[in-house]
Amino acid sequence: MPLINENFLKLKAGYLFPEIARRVRVYAAANPDKHVIRMGIGDVTEPLPQAVTTAMHKAIDEMSVRETFRGYGPEQGYDFLRAAVVQNDFAARGCDIAADEIFVSDGSKCDAGNILDIFGAGNTIAVTDPVYPVYVDTNVMAGNTGHADVVTGEYAGLTYLRCNAQSDFAPALPTSHADIIYLCSPNNPTGAVLTRDKLAAFVEYAVAHKSLILFDAAYEAYIMSDAIPRSIYEIPGARSCAIEFRSFSKTAGFTGVRAAYTVVPKALKGKNKSGDAIDIHPLWMRRHTTKFNGISYIVQRGCEAVYSSDGKQQVAGLIQGYLANATLIRQRLTKLGLIVFGGDNAPYVWIKTPRNATGDSTKSWDFFDTLLHQAQVVCTPGAGFGLAGEGYVRLSAFNSKANVEEALSRIERVLGKA
Ligand code: MLT
């Protein structure tokens, strides 16, 4: 029998979203007449922008003709897409990023996990709490943690940067040395954004401690305030201490199409066992080109169209629609007396659960069950994102306006205010 990677045995239960899906399936099977509204997983509901589908159709036509057919493309992505990314996402915001620092891929979740391949054992890892579970679970799989505490569920060896309502869910700097720090802004799950000063403080910390920041900017398209950085490279010094993950999923409705990219600046250094500085860019290039064959030409033409003038307009329409839903959620839940966060520069609204009979916040999985069983609305329990998420739930604004309105009316009825 083959030996297995025992780190997998340290993982707690199932991944959060399949567990939610399992509970919803059980409920739906027992209640086939009920219409369940899914506001749990952050999955887009609106169709692809027309500029994207037109470009993809054209690319399919090219693929059907011998003269324009293409086989394997460059693993890192076609030049036309990397150039469009640099021009629109970085140069336009004054960020110094070159096309060969862009690595096109099939998703930020994959990249955020795969990046650990190029780092050695023994790095100290800092994550926020609440946290997107992928950052934690992939570090468990990679052997960067000990076992989970039986009571708290937290993994030995990980540094948790607590975020709470008092600090608007912004993480504090690590108080002990961290080699790798995960940051996500706009944040999944809290919807909080990192201000320029806050992000600059993390960059300063990383430069001083020779740490690496893994910056997840999958939701940057939802930032409406000009004061909030959309890329970590807007902060001086970030080229030497940060990798950034970007995605077309939540921006242009690509969750089912699959396209993302990761920025690995050539200024980044790690070290070997003897303490010599080693360039990170060629290591990621080696990993990416060895284990990945790129995403399809058709999809990359669709991505390129996101940056066309029609594409930009249509994408802005999608974002505005989801943000209008988030505003509706914020407003109506606030009216109900609930305390809400996020949702203004993010597609997620983070909600303090109502007090129970004993005056404590309802446990987040209990409130999840209440909403599912009584309102047929699916949320994501905050406890699934870590200890500091207990007593909260997340509602995703990715839905049609009609469904969001219906879900809110049902929640109002359940909470006795309608
Ligand atoms: C979420 O709901 O947190 C996201 O959809 C997860 C993801 O993007 O992988």
Low-pLDDT parts are none
How much of the residues is beta strand, in percent?
Answer: 5-15%
Shape: globular
Spatial ordering of strands, largest sheet: 2-8-7-6-5-3-4
| Percent range of helical residues | 25-40%
Query: Taking all residues together, what is the mean pLDDT?
Result: 96
- Global structural class: alpha/beta
Topology:
Elements: H1 16-30, E1 37-38, H2 50-63, H3 79-90, E2 102-105, H4 108-114, E3 125-129, H5 133-141, E4 158-162, E5 180-184, H6 196-209, E6 212-216, E7 242-247, H7 249-252, E8 260-263, E9 269-271, E10 277-279, H8 281-291, H9 297-306, H10 309-335, E11 340-342, E12 348-352, H11 364-375, E13 377-378, E14 380-381, E15 392-396, H12 401-414
Helix pairs in contact: 2-9, 3-9, 4-5, 10-12, 11-12
This protein binds D-malate.
The site of D-malate has 5 residues, from loops.
Structural description of this entry:
With about 425 residues, the chain is α/β, with parallel strands linked by helices. The chain is built from twelve helices and 15 strands. Strands 2-8-7-6-5-3-4 form a seven-stranded mixed beta sheet, sandwiched between helices. The protein is globular. The mean pLDDT is about 95. Bound molecules: D-malate. D-malate (MLT) binds next to loops. D-malate binds near residues 41, 42, 43, 109 and 188.
